[in-house]
Amino acid sequence: MTKPEIKYTLHDSTLVAVSTGPRREVVFTIDLYPIFYPTRPRIRLRFGGIKNFDTVKRYVDEIRERHVGNGIDNFYMKKKSDGYWFFLDIDWFGLLRIHCSRMTMIEVESFEWEVMNHLPSPQSLRHFYYPGASTVGGRDGVIVRMEPNDDAPWIGTFAFGQFGSRGVTKVVPLPDRQRLCVVSRGAGYVVLASDPLTWEEIPFVPILD
User: Which of 94, 91, 88, 107 is nearest to 47 (CA)?
Assistant: First the structure.
């Protein structure tokens, strides 16, 4: 095993979820501490080929039975004669020791989204029309279902631009992993996934690419 890269400091981060996989693996979903990471990215810490899997699984099962949402005090690794060991210190549960063949840290989106061809029936989700973030109606446009990790899902209809075939249509998450850019036949909008009232219209029109 080559030396793994620990990309993020996990001190004072929050454990959101934990799961075990079929190939002696464990995945921790973690919200990083906002003082260190102001955009508060969410990461997945994955361990694979765990050699002390039975011990690790008992620890994980206890967390899942009692509570998820605890703080993480520390995370570090040590190289020993038998390979790399990882140490994860979680509030109320103590120090977890993991001996594994691989470890990865990846940043994940703070929300999921889906472009829809039509509104669902019956309609039970909050529905916002852009521009304006109105809830009482608006123009036809691109329909997107938004599902923030920490809030209720909602639907946005982003009005078509008046540019015909010249204007492009696309939906792209922004690098901060908090906002979505929707281009609807050349008219552009940016909306915060966790707050549909926080949005802006892109002033440059038509958007052609």
Answer: 88
Domain count, the chain: 2
Residue 172 and residue 118 in one domain: yes
Q: 62: domain range?
A: 13-108
pTM of the model: 0.60
Tokens representing 196 are 């549909």
Q: Which long-range contacts (CB under 8 A, 24 or more apart) does 35-39 make?
A: 36/9, 36/11, 36/12, 37/8, 39/176, 39/177, 39/178
Same domain assignment for residues 125 and 194: yes
pLDDT tens by residue, 136-171: 999 999 999 998 877 789 999 999 998 877 789 999
Angle value at C-alpha 77, between 74 and 80, nearest 5 degrees: 145
Same domain assignment for residues 135 and 153: yes
